[in-house]
Amino acid sequence: AQTAKQVIDQKIHEAERDVVLAEFEKKIGNLVTGTVIKADPYKLVVGIGRAEAICPADEEIKNEILPLGVKKLFLLKQILRDDSGKSEIILSRRDNEFIAQLFAREVPEVGNRTVTIEKIARTPGQRTKIAVSSKQAGVDPVGSCIGQKGSRIQAVLSELPSEEKVDVVAYNKNVNLFIISALSPAQNIEIEDIKNGIARVTVPEDQLALAIGSGGENVHLAGVLTDLDIKINGRKTEDKSIKN
Predict the structure, then answer these.
(1) pTM of the model
(2) What Rg, from alpha-carbon coordinates, does the chain have?
(3) pLDDT per position as a tens digit, 108-121
(4) Pairing of strands 43-48, 31-40
(5) Is the previous residue joined to 56 through a cis bond, with omega within 30 degrees of 0?
(6) pLDDT-flagged residues of the chain (< 50)
(7) What DSSP state is assigned to residue 105?
(8) How far apart are CA 20 and CA 156, in angstroms?
(9) What single string gives the DSSP state of each residue in 109-143?
(10) Coil, helix or strand for 171?
């Protein structure tokens, strides 16, 4: 009798698990709130509703320490099933889609697709550049993402490690203009030429450090956004002050 009961219990347990998994299937590609239950060097075990999920080390943000019991947003990336029918819910905080979904959550224009995220370049935990556009007249895609007094971008940043900076730049089909916006916050950028996937640009010497960024991060991410290898040189600014 015991074994029959065990079989029935197991069947009920499996049926319940299938119902829970079916719920999560619908949420793939969306954000879920999870509580960190366990952590080891290979993964985090995260409680999401009635299920447990895994955030593997390569889906975590490098150097981000999430203490046990902390609640965080995760991207529900996929559900993996093995041959024996076992399944695992995989979460991510370093996937680019995590950033896209944060913006969709905080920026109504991204949520309703008035503003389109064209491309994301990210070094998780350090810096992200996100290129946005809008086909709707009168909508400023960058302004929409930043919000009044930076309210929307602050809401996005509050979900990321404090060291991670996010630049929102205007996408442009004109590659020269796109390079210029991708290299922001540097200004007065001039495009010398673009050949064989290499863009040569110059900036005033006082903008050089900004254009390159700490450890080359700014120019690297701008290159990822524009699909170009960007080479930057400084140029001397002419002294236009009149000497007596």
Answers:
(1) 0.88
(2) 23
(3) 999 999 999 999 99
(4) antiparallel
(5) no
(6) none
(7) H
(8) 29
(9) HHHTTSEEEEEEEEETTTEEEEEEEE-STT--HHH
(10) coil
